[in-house]
Amino acid sequence: MTTQKPARRVIISSFLAASAVLLGLPLQANAAETVLLNASYDVARELFKDINPLFVAEWKKTTGETLSINQSHGGSSKQARSVADGMEAAVVTMNQANDIDMLADKGLVVQDWAKKFPNNAAPYYSTMIYLVRKGNPKQIKDWADLAKPGVKVVIPNPKTAGNGRYTYLAAWGSVLKKGGTEAQARELVTKIFKNVPVLDAGGRGATTTFTQREIGDVLVTFENEVNLVRAEFGNNFEVVYPSISILAESPVAVVDKVVDRRGVRKQATGYLNFLYSEQAQEVIAKHYFRPRSEAAFKKYNANFRQITLFTVDDVFGGWRSAQKKHFDDGGEFDKIYQTK
């Protein structure tokens, strides 16, 4: 896995390398090769870099067809908008259902996309935890600590990154799940975002801000990203788990309009089904994403600390409700950030 690469190479190179927005990609790269584009979120770069060759080999073995998988990465919501604007992605692998719902509303994805694959079409999940500097000088242990005066918190923009949106909802929901009120939740989240020095567009950008630009006392990000940083940067950072956090599912979908036009539905569906295979689930677990496979989870159990998780459905009534209340223009986040 990526932890064997030289220190700093993966995060720096993946952030600086432009994510190709592949428009008008030809169906055939050559006479014998079929090309699929996977539009995904930015902190899944290394995961799909390892999964794609496995699927290509398996597909060749079972069908005799030569495939090539291209990747495009960025903030989850930004990627979804690119697909809506014409990026020729055969599949989307996002970090929140809300982004795929938007594509469904535009007629690019079927409305019941979440029923097309197991586990609400989410082959793995994660949660939001903290990365702090060595020694944890600000003694950050839970969500309330992010709101303390003098603490600089690095979070990507909830308007463009699912990473930032999950962090916002995790902080808000932590108050409600402990018996607090909506007003108290709003107060906590307002104080946290007053402590955010810069809003990067995506999660990988936020990681670079924290690790390379050395801005901030704490980075809030996906569990897998935290462990990737620790593996590459050695003992410069420490991992902190809050007392409670949010279950962050990573849903997938076939982009129906694209695959039907290009005649690659079979290949695209096979690719997403492969993510549920034991072979892919092991890779997922190695990358510190939480797999759906019980066998893979058990085998890599040491990668995952026990933590109380709540869902978007449980606390916010689902992604559509959360989006409307908190992240649509003029919603709670806009009101909170405008008062910064």
Automatic annotation (TrEMBL):
Family that this chain belongs to: Belongs to the prokaryotic sulfate-binding protein family.
Record's protein name: Sulfate ABC transporter substrate-binding protein
GO terms for cellular component: periplasmic space
Coiled coil: none
Superkingdom in the source lineage: Bacteria
SUPFAM superfamilies: Periplasmic binding protein-like II
Main subcellular localisation: periplasm
Organism: Duganella vulcania
Signal sequence segment: 1-31
Lineage, broadest ranks: Bacteria, Pseudomonadati, Pseudomonadota, Betaproteobacteria, Burkholderiales
